[in-house]
Design goal:
heterodimer, A: 113 residues, alpha+beta, Alpha-Beta Plaits, 4-stranded antiparallel sheet, two-stranded antiparallel sheet, 3 helices, 6 strands, 23% helix, B: 431 residues, mainly alpha, Ammonium transporter fold, 2 strands
Chain lengths: 113, 431
Amino acid sequence: MKLIIAYIQPHKLNDVKQSLYKEEVYKMSVTNSLGCGQQKGYHESYRGVGMEVNLLKKVRLEIAVNENFVERTIKAIIDGAKTGQIGDGKIFVLDLPECIRIRTGERGGEAIG
Amino acid sequence: METKVIIDTIWVLITAKMVFFMNLGFAAVESGFARAKNCVNILSKNFIVFAVSSLGFLIIGWGLMFGNGNGFIGLKGLLFAGGADNSPATGEAYRGVYSAISWTGVPLWAKFFFQLVFCGTAATIVSGAVAERIKYISFIIFSFVMAMLIYPIIGHWVWGGGWLAKMGAFDFAGSTVVHSVGGWAALTGVAMLGPRIGKYGNGMIKAIPGHNLSLATIGTFVLWFGWFGFNPGSTMSADPYAISHVAVTTNTAAAMAIMSATITSWLLLGKPDLGMTLNGCLAGLVAITAPCAFVSVGNSLIIGLIAGVLVVLAVLMFDRLHLDDPVGALSVHLVNGIFGTLCVGLFAQDKITGTATGNGLFYGGGLTLLKAQLAAVVSVGVFVLAISTATWAVLKAVIGIRVSREEEIRGLDIGEHGNEAYAGFQIFTTE
């Protein structure tokens, strides 16, 4: 089992979700976060004074998958999130030793579903 | 100086300032009903539109609306309200080019300022309907056209001694002149812009909830308060009987519309939606705006009752038609502006507060008044639809009226203004 963590642009979230749905990946967790990347930030201004913003808004997705779903999930995320521009995001794949469904107590691959 | 002139002037200016205050109401309602990422943009539109209206009305709007001319537009004293005028002289004693408004005994600038805030109200109605996807610059330019052309010409027809007034159509405080004009212009904007991304798709209608219903409620209270200037102030004289009557018809219609909108949405949608309740209040106020000085308090109950039902049904209808209106401006101002105008033809009682309107259909006046009101509704609709469609079309062709897809999703605050409304807070991406 793997835990896939992806950081994407907030405005691509819907595209990524649709792309995941196409691959029959429906279970996920979404959090808002701030992040630094290779982007130099964007220029904002407040009453005429410019500000450089370095911690940019990101959306973080967490998806627990069985082995056979790892590659298609990664591909779906990339399909949805990629624009070719700096700032598209990153995907991390972590080993997931255990997974438990709280309601039924199921463990392992069945809990992931 | 005559005491009456002094008191009338104070009355006109105080009520005008209450109507000015309604701009805060609009800003709060619209931003409350929109998403946080577009908040600065909506506040900006509502703020700048009053400046645009003030300038446009000063430059030529007042003159087109109230200058002596023909049945369609004013032709004298067009620019900067500079025509000859000896206000506060009234009636036979009046010498000047703004005869249509010489019935009220206050100085020229008091008349001007009072009419200006009404123009501002009409222009700001559009901003809610086109919210969250219109280009700022396109909205500003359109608003100039509203203040300098569309609004004054309609105003001339009804209040400036134009052909609708001569035909016996009545609109006390502006269900037609202000609200339906704003509504028709908003309708064309909504149609030409298209819906927000994600609103309709696969035959589904998706709710896009407002980010701050507290703000929306504050705004609605401010509008309700301001309406006590909008309607009673339109007497433009401190006539104790008239202004008291109008204050009560105004409030009664609002209260009744709140109840009927709440009940209607409760029954149709399962729970009493606050957005519907707020819109119900505004619908009642819009609907009573034309008839408030011409109908009894009892009839204002009926008018408010129907307005509240109408607004809920209209909101649902516009969504079914895939006309995306984030704040319900079309349902409130257009639908109830038309309804309120027609109510004069149904419920009016001749001289109930002094004005000789003739009786409406339900008071033995036959169809005369109703036909005049209908003529007003239709002619105003045709004119405003035509000119606003043309304006949007030109803007669309030359500079575009809608922001890019990416900007719309990221939020207009960053895209149009480079500002955030809630800097330092994380605005959640939730979809």
